Amino acid sequence: MRFVFSHSHAFPGGRVTVDDDGKTGPSCLVEFGDGVTVLAEWRPADGAMYLSIPAYATAKGTAIAPRTWRLVQGKDGSWRSRKAS
To answer: Where do the structural domains in the chain lie, given as residue ranges?
Structure first.
């Protein structure tokens, strides 16, 4: 799996592109709009996906703490990030 965020970080309500490459397993790539790519883990649950992104730095050097995001698909087919509880 590959997840692409159009911004330098994920945030609540942010759009994310989900690219299912057909491979199984929890490892995935997460690409951000500033060109940074990180190795992360994902899992399906309750009709959504949970994406655990490790700590990383944006291209400008801003430190981003590790976080797990709940990704939900809207009626229009687009995916959005939500805070995982």
So the answer is: 2-83
